[in-house]
Design goal:
Length: 336
């Protein structure tokens, strides 16, 4: 009697393996690029890296240390009154691991003088009149996987006695909160360029592909840099480089955070509205014409949910074109 044929299941057309890197080869490629572009084309001597204690800045610092040597990389730690203490501690830890020189630049006095905290407080008081300097706040989005339709940002506040409440924001209040908070990234970038000018170093940006593509940055703030070593890498791929480079496990385990508001806040709840691993895969699928059904099979969520992420990616691309735009010129300026 002939044994019944074993039915083999066809492997899915798409999987998380699409984002797997040859980490040693990619590190070598980026290091060679940094040496050629920063030392050769730009004529700078080394690099400035703003260290946040997060995965992206840690990987960029490690890449720059390999490219220029540890003595030619300056790590800047730029806390302010709303920063998590973990950011400063972990930023110092990665600098110690890489044997980098660091400088702590406390930017709260500059932000206070510019009125950043006051302007944020006044905007919040338009919807929460009792809000004061001893309160805490953050902006949040609901998960895109659990809803459809427009992204609606809400304000969450915490009173001094620990009570938490959430309110919808009128557009003008939302815009003022964001505008006031954006001072932080702009002051940090201004500080980076001060040190870059005095040392004749290049400023190394820390955006990954997800942030760069989706406009998760501040114009004339963390968008500005002389070189962007990881802007072509999906967030998942940055984690792969971090493991290969030996970045401390605590930093690799730390959930991505904006570290912008006084309440703890993940990047997911602030901007992306879906876990970065899923958003990475969905963005890869959008970029390569892969169907929602194939992504759904690979990620074990519904095709409807994948379509929501696809829609959100496209929406953010449209909404943030302004952030990517260069200054508009009346006539083209041609250089010989």
């Amino acid at each position: 009697m002939t044994a019944p044929a074993i039915q083999s299941r066809t492997a899915p057309a798409f999987s998380e393996d699409a984002l797997v890197l040859d980490a040693p080869a990619e590190v070598a490629r980026i290091v060679a690029f940094l040496r050629e572009q920063v030392l050769g084309v730009l004529g700078r001597r080394g690099a400035i890296v703003g260290l946040s204690g997060g995965i992206d800045s840690s990987v960029v610092a490690a890449l720059c240390a390999r490219a220029f040597g540890e003595t030619k990389v300056l790590g800047l730690l730029m806390p302010e009154r709303d920063s998590s203490s973990d950011s400063l501690r972990l930023g110092r830890a990665v600098a110690t691991q890489l044997r980098l020189t660091t400088i702590v630049e406390e930017i709260a006095p500059a932000l206070e003088a510019l009125g950043a905290y006051r302007r944020q407080r006044e905007a919040i008081q338009a919807v929460v009149p009792e809000y004061g300097d001893d309160w805490k706040c953050k902006l949040v989005l609901g998960s895109i996987l659990e809803r459809d339709g427009f992204n609606i940002t809400r304000l969450t506040v915490q009173s001094p006695d620990g009570a938490i409440s959430t309110a919808r924001l009128p557009p003008d209040v939302y815009l003022q909160i964001v505008a006031a908070t954006n001072y932080k990234q702009r002051v940090r970038k201004m500080t980076e360029y001060y040190h870059a000018d005095r040392l004749k170093y290049a400023v190394a940006g820390t955006q990954n592909r997800l942030e760069h593509d989706q406009g998760f940055f501040v114009k004339q703030g963390d968008s500005d840099a002389d070189v962007m070593p990881i802007a072509h890498l999906y967030k998942s791929q940055v984690y792969q480089l971090a493991e290969y480079l030996g970045i401390d496990e605590e930093i690799r385990r730390r959930p991505p955070t904006s570290d912008t508001f006084s309440m703890p806040q993940s990047q997911e709840e602030f901007y992306f509205a879906a876990p970065y691993r899923l958003t990475d895969l969905c963005m890869y699928a959008v970029n390569h014409g892969i169907s929602a059904e194939d992504v759904a099979e690979a990620t074990c969520i519904s095709a409807t949910q994948v379509q929501r992420v696809f829609k959100d990616i496209s929406s953010k691309r449209r909404a943030t074109r302004y952030l990517h735009a260069r200054p508009l010129l009346v006539d083209a300026v041609i250089e010989d």
